[in-house]
Structures are given as structure tokens and as C-alpha cells.
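User: My notes are a mess, but here's the protein and zinc ion's SMILES. Can you give me a structure?
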Amino acid sequence: MNVVSLMAHQDDEMRCLGTMLKCRARGDQLHFVCLTDGSAGVLGAEAPTPADAARIRAAEMKALARAAGATYRCLNAPDEFMADTPELRMALVEALRATGAELVFTHYHDDYNLDHSLTHALAKHACMLACLPLLPTASPPLREHPAVYCVEPHGPVPFPASAFVDITAFESAKAELVTKHESQERSMRAALGTGMAELCRVPDAYWGQKAGCSYAEPFLPMAARGAIKTRPVLP
Ligand SMILES: [Zn+2]
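Assistant: No problem, the inputs look usable. Here's the predicted complex:
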């Protein structure tokens, strides 16, 4: 199965990374797609310009993808100023087709960040468009609408999770992978006093306690036509 993390920013995959590693263990191919270029996402002197920030974020995401045995594609929308355009919709359709998307993880509709909320809406639309033969892209249309699951939002937003994946065996690998985002590790420690691994471990333990295991990731199936499958897709 082709499993795709479809997120606004480099590091947003942290909400589904443990599940993706579990997917890889069952033989799935992993793909990371980021809609924005990350050009607003580095704090401090290491990125004097937005172009420097985008270069740093790209290098970090590529390192993570390489370590996870995954592909990585960035659609280069402007970070924090993402807009719904025909070009971005078609780039997203091509990304879904090129990856052969069968299982997609993306943002929940409510979130502190508008890039995240807009990614949710674009993902919902593009997963449907990716099946339409009259929209030409380099890759052929998907034969079937992928299964889509929303990840836990960032910030104090109620999240009605209804599916849980036990990632206990993958939590340490996940923690190691997220620290590939070295600039984010430094930014988070400066802003919040805690690193990327801890930002994963605390919510994963919270949801694990609810799900009856040590660490879990929570999901909500996307309420969209074709996005919910009657066969099991989560690992
Ligand atoms: Zn983000």
C-alpha cells in the first residue's frame, strides 16, 4: 500500500509518523508531501532570509525521508501564506497520482494554523480530483479514492478521534526521526523549552493511556465520499 503524509509543513508528519513506520513494517511504501516551502519556519540567526529557511527545512525533511525509506515532494506554496489556486490544486493532484496514494494522512479541519486548515480542505478536494480522467497530469489518474485519516491538530482544539494505532514498538524510532528537523529542535527548545521527541512522546502517551497501550496516535476518518473504506487500512 502507498501511504502518504499530506501536510502543510515539514515536521507536521509528527502526528502520523509512528503509524507510518508501522505501515512500513508491514511492507507499505511511504511518501511525504509538504504543500509549503517552510520559508517562515525557522527562528533565529541560522536563517537570515526566507530562502535560507526554505533550504534548511527542505534539507531536514529530505534527511528524514531518506532515513524512513520514503519519497519526499514539496509543492512550494509560500509558508503561512498558502492560497487555494488552480496551480496548487493540480500540483496536489499530481502528487497524489505520482505516489499512487492509497492511504493518506492529513490535517484536521480545525487548527491554530490556517495553512493546516486549508491543507485539510485541499486534500479532501484533491483526493477526489485525482480520480478524474479529464484532469491531465504527468501521472495517470488514481483508480480508487484513497482512504483518508485526519491527524490530531496542534493547539487547544477539541479532536473527536475514533481510530487509534498502537505505536509503542515504534515510538523510539519516531523520536529519533523527528530530531532530523534540527532547526525545529532548536526553535522548539527556545520557544517552548522542550524538544521534538518530547512534543511527540507526551501526546502519544496521553492517547496510549486512552487506547490501552503505552503510546498511540489518534485519527479521525475524513468524512468525504470515497475516503472511508469498509476494509481495514490502518496497521
Ligand atoms: Zn504545520
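The chain has a mean pLDDT of 95.
User: Great, I'll file this with my notes.
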